[in-house]
Design goal:
Blueprint: H1 2-15, H2 17-53, E1 56-61, H3 70-77, E2 82-88, H4 90-100, E3 119-124, H5 131-142, E4 147-151, H6 154-196, H7 198-206, H8 211-250, H9 264-289
Helix pairs in contact: 1-8, 2-6, 2-8, 6-9, 8-9
């Protein structure tokens, strides 16, 4: 029975090649756009997590503080989450700054005194607890009397996280929009197919064919359209991703950014969502025109 339904569905697809091709291409475009959004967000999240793992806190000492105090270093390293604290004297910091700004060496010609403070560069232990955990560590270090200020790029992180949240919101809206669009396109295609087979459907009803027997090929057709669109869309995205990843690896960012394609779970969800869109499109059309 199932084989017969598949046969009828394939016959409908071949008899209406253009309509089904347009539907598959529409689903393909929807899958490419939505998958690209998911891929970009996933890689941005991985980049943020990797950056978080490598976060270092700079703790700047007050002028009157005893530079490089072993007691202060031990106090900092006793904070939960801190792996190591390295003292950087103001003279060492100035030398590093001059080395990094060799092309702007004239800026230091009229420098009467060293304006930089002593500091501790604090390396954190790897953690998956998020930025709130880093904020707690920074707050505890800032509470020491010898510490004047703390710096760990929090403002930059807030800006990036804000953009990521906005992108996720827009991405979710796009997913919903393209899902509805795919359902509508499949519904219109099924509607046209039903029109072309309306006489055949009526004859099948007259001879006693069950509604499930009549509906099954249309649902199978919608599932196949969704499956083909998903596979083709993911294939197009993979080709584009591979080309871009190769360019990134050859650029100066190659050692800093490791791009990853969608996970197996994400691919399965996208494929199932595409097939669901095809099935829902058939349901909408069948319910309207066959009074099912």
């Amino acid at each position: 029975m199932i084989a017969r339904h598949f046969k009828r569905a394939l016959e409908d697809i071949l008899a209406n090649r253009f309509l089904n091709a347009v539907t598959a291409v529409t689903i393909l475009l929807a899958v490419v756009i939505v998958s690209a959004a998911v891929l970009l967000y996933a890689n941005a999240s991985d980049l943020m997590n990797a950056w978080q793992q490598g976060t270092r806190i700079m703790a700047y000492l007050r002028p009157e503080a005893s530079g490089g105090s072993p007691a202060l270093r031990r106090s900092i390293e006793s904070v939960d989450g801190v792996q190591q604290a390295v003292f950087i004297s103001r003279d060492e910091a100035l030398r590093d700054l001059k080395a990094r700004m060799q092309h702007q060496a004239s800026l230091f010609d009229n420098l009467l005194e060293n304006p930089l403070p002593d500091a501790f560069e604090i390396q954190l232990k790897p953690s998956t607890e998020g930025w709130e955990h880093i904020e707690d560590i920074a707050a505890r270090i800032r509470s020491f009397a010898e510490i004047e200020d703390i710096e760990y790029g929090r403002q930059w992180v807030d800006a990036v996280q804000g953009v990521a949240e906005l992108f996720r919101t827009v991405g979710m809206a796009m997913m919903g929009l393209f899902f509805v669009a795919a359902v509508a396109i499949v519904a219109n295609t099924t509607r046209l197919v039903i029109y072309s087979r309306q006489e055949e459907v009526e004859i099948m009803r007259l001879v006693g064919a069950s509604e499930s027997f009549i509906k099954a090929p249309f649902y199978i057709e919608g599932l196949l359209q969704g499956l083909v669109g998903a596979i083709a869309g993911i294939g197009v995205l993979f080709v584009v991703f591979t080309a871009l990843a190769a360019r990134v690896e050859q650029s100066t960012l190659g050692g800093m950014i490791a791009l990853c394609f969608l996970s197996l779970e994400q691919l399965v969800v996208i494929t199932l969502a595409s097939m669901l869109a095809g099935c829902l499109g058939c349901y909408v059309s069948l319910k309207e025109f066959m009074k099912i």
